[in-house]
Amino acid sequence: xxxxxxxxxxxxxxxxxxxxxxxxxxxxxxxxxxxxxxxxxxxxxxxxxxxxxxxxxxxxxxxxxxxxxxxxxxxxxxxxxxxxxxxxxxxxxxxxxxxxxxxxxxxxxxxxxxxxxxxxxxxxxxxxxxxxxxxxxxxxxxxxxxxxxxxxxxxxxxxxxxxxxxxxxxxxxxxxxxxxxxxxxxxxxxxxxxxxxxxxxxxxxxxxxxxxxxxxxxxxxxxxxxxxxxxxxxxxxxxxxxxxxxxxxxxxxxxxxxxxxxxxxxxxxxxxxxxxxxxxxxxxxxxxxxxxxxxxxxxxxxxxxxxxxxxxxxxxxxxxxxxxxxxxxxxxxxxxxxxxxxxxxxxxxxxxxxxxxxxxxxxxxxxxxxxxxxxxxxxxxxxxxxxxxxxxxxxxxxxxxxxxxxxxxxxxxxxxxxxxxxxxxxxxxxxxxxxxxxxxxxxxxxxxxxxxxxxxxxxxxxxxxxxxxxxxxxxxxxxxxxxxxxxxxxxxxxxxxxxxxxxxxxxxxxxxxxxxxxxxxxxxxxxxxxxxxxxxxxxxxxxxxxxxxxxxxxxxxxxxxxxxxxxxxxxxxxxxxxxxxxxxxxxxxxxxxxxxxxxxxxxxxxxxxxxxxxxxxxxxxxxxxxxxxxxxxxxxxxxxxxxxxxxxxxxxxxxxxxxxxxxxxxxxxxxxxxxxxxxxxxxxxx
Length: 686
What we know:
The chain has 686 residues and is α/β, with parallel strands linked by helices. Helices cover 57% and strands 7% of the residues. It contains 26 helices and 14 strands. The chain has a four-stranded mixed beta sheet. The chain has a three-stranded mixed beta sheet with strand order 6-8-9. Helix 25 (644-654) links the parallel strand 12 (637-638) and strand 13 (658-662). Helix 13 (301-332) packs parallel to helix 22 and helix 18 runs antiparallel to helix 19. The longest helix has 43 residues, at 36-78. The protein starts with 10 loop residues before the first strand and ends with a helix. The relative contact order is 0.11.
């Protein structure tokens, strides 16, 4: 699909070269004026400060996630009933001291009103779900519009070297947290795992902004945001190693060893904090952790392949259809965001209530689908009852379709929403369906040759493990993430003996998914929403020189090395550019100066508007404002015939904001090119 550039102007480009140089000057300057005996203390403080920031970020992410988990579970149960003795308790805690089926403190809404009417329970479920979702959409629209969506595409753009003001601010964090609990609790087919990354990055930004060292350096702040993103995934899945792997594989454009170590530490602290809070009072970090003690058989690979193909096909079709829905939403429903959410919530809850598998919160549903059947137990909703296997299979098939349609429609609406857990629930439902059908086949024909490996009088096929593999396949199909999905699923279950089947289904899902659509849903939304992101161009072949992409010198604002007056400079700095090439009297490039630094220096000088300004070091005359200290005398320059691929590599590896294009013979300025210029050209070709 063609890529938009609609939101390019909302983002500012970070100059990593200039930022790194300023940071090195800040580090060396205090040491130059500090006594030798105090330099050791200064270095120790600098080393400890970063770990203090990472620790605070991890603790706050863990606490925030625990509070959201508690609120989400209460809101989900509130649609079904109320605890008569303590209204603030959800069903599990209300009936904590009672056996299943013997709790009298919890009442469905019809019983609480003194009747026994299924229709009243149905209406309460639909009405409360709609109220929760509508309230969420209204709060987000009024107080923090940037809190809508998952936030992953924007986070990728930010970590790639761009700045979106307010996207990781305190108000966005608050509304993302409150809105996420309402959105997930309403019953919409959305998850909280994607937004958990955005919230983690918000916590990292808010905390680090209180430390001057991080407030002044975009590079150091990127380290904290990368670590916070890893911690967000870690607490979402209870998988600290998987969180770091996800940040490395899918989010961060640059991930040096120092960032890797701090990300792991931050993810660990966040996970420990969540464990200490124990929001589910089960000792589990997430609701759907499970464990398996049975092994798999070679003949089951046939069923695993089916699950992998489904995961890839679902992921690809989900991406394609969701992009069509998103385009329709932008074109026709932009003014009706709250009304759209209200209608969507009413329709979703009205349909999901009918099916017992979709009526449950998706996290809780996963916990049921991933549990092995115990000997002699019928399991939740009779899933382990052999006499009802056919009925269970039909219900699982219906749940798969309902959740898939709901996810396609809901993901991207103007509430905080993620797609990880909905996709896992869809994959787990299909996987459990395949496992149930395989189990029925084995029971009907135990003497078939394919079942020769099965031991007599012992369970041969475990449908729960099929659900586990289905969840991994569907998650990979949507995100196109492989290694981190395998690691996350292993950390969720500890099922080392199912590592090989997990790798198989994930790889098949990735291959099939790439056949349907290239790139994960985050990459596709980056293109659809016009976000600037350079690292999505690895396979692009630009058979053009940089001269075809650059902004030509006639359209470039420049400052002369000598001869400009204050009034001229003041007019130049009011333009919407971030910096200016410095040229001599014949147009040769002598440097580059930032707009903000230039504007601040002229304002602070307090001199007459007709006073002369000089940007070269030789002009030290009376009455001349000398600003050579602001000039970067060695900007990145290329020749007009330099290939566009080379320029892209310079942007990726070095990270300058702008590259100047100079003539081959005398170094005269011919134009300049930015990351946004490259992206505009590429997306205009598709």
